[in-house]
Amino acid sequence: MSPYLAPLLGGMLLGVAATILMIVNGRTAGISGIVGQLLNGSKWVEDAAFVLGLCLGPLAYAIVFGTFPNVQIASSGALVALAGLLVGFGTRMGSGCTSGHGIVGLARLSPRSIAATAAFLAAGVATATLMGALR
Asked: Same domain, yes or no, for 81 and 114?
């Protein structure tokens, strides 16, 4: 099996899920916004169903491919936690996350999402380059 098949299918599923959420509920599929609203208690059932669907993704993968995805984390738990906090801070500062801006916002040609996605990519390239240089 091609190593590109699972990411391709995952991307397609994200696009389909974002489209369905927009058509059915008129809402943008931004994960940080949905989780934030879930924690605030507004639209609890819809948001909980969306987050549960995301969490069940590895199970769906195992059903389709016969095994759970192989995930290897090469960093310490503390570094992963720090990265998670920085991502959360960045999504609040950027008024959304990669899924909201990068998938839905770009499809809608939103100038704010184009700028945010360019910033996400630039920061990712800079971080990867810096981390590669530090090894």
From this structure: yes
